[in-house]
Write a structure and sequence with these properties.
The structure is a single chain. Helix content is about 45%, strand content about 25%. By secondary structure, the protein is α+β, with helices and mostly antiparallel strands. The protein folds into two domains: about 70 residues, no CATH class; about 60 residues, Nucleic acid-binding proteins (OB fold (Dihydrolipoamide Acetyltransferase, E2P), Beta Barrel), CATH 2.40.50.
Length: about 150
């Protein structure tokens, strides 16, 4: 079985693309893609010098064109202060759908969804159905609510 240059470029491209999964950062995938494209290029152009030049220039071009996008996406994905799920709703206004008091867990509606809600103070306050409240914190899977400033 003969091994042609395009076999080697295809294997190298595949290995670089797989290595991108293991190595942190974003550098190997563009060269993996360039290796795979160089495999096709090697079928048309036989001198190895031109193939290497195509690989290096192609990989460098892919890094240049895609690095800004992936660095921004990585920065957003790893932001320490990015809040998700229930924490992302804290600070928003909700509408009481089931009465809430210190003794009674009720429900509030925010963003089209109904969530459990509690009032942490034993001061006799009662939040009736339809009242607008502020979501000030999270206790497990329930919101801690507070009256709106304007009320």
């Amino acid at each position: 079985m003969e091994i042609y240059a395009w076999h080697l470029w295809l294997i190298a491209g595949f290995l670089l693309a797989v290595a991108e999964i293991i190595v942190p950062g974003f550098f190997l995938l563009p060269f993996g893609v360039a290796g795979m494209l160089t495999a096709a290029f090697s079928l048309l152009v036989k001198p190895v010098v031109w193939q290497i030049a195509f690989f290096v220039l192609g990989g460098g071009l892919f890094v240049f064109l895609t690095r800004k996008f992936f660095v921004k996406a990585e920065r957003v994905a790893h932001a320490e202060d990015t809040k998700t799920n229930i924490e992302a709703l804290v600070g928003r206004t909700a509408i009481v759908t089931s009465p809430v008091s210190y003794e009674r867990r009720g429900y509030v509606k925010v963003g089209g969804e109904e969530w459990g809600a509690v009032w942490p103070k034993d001061d006799g306050a009662l939040f009736d159905v339809g009242r607008r409240v502020k979501l000030v914190g999270v206790d497990g899977i329930k919101f801690i609510i507070a009256p709106l400033e304007e009320e």
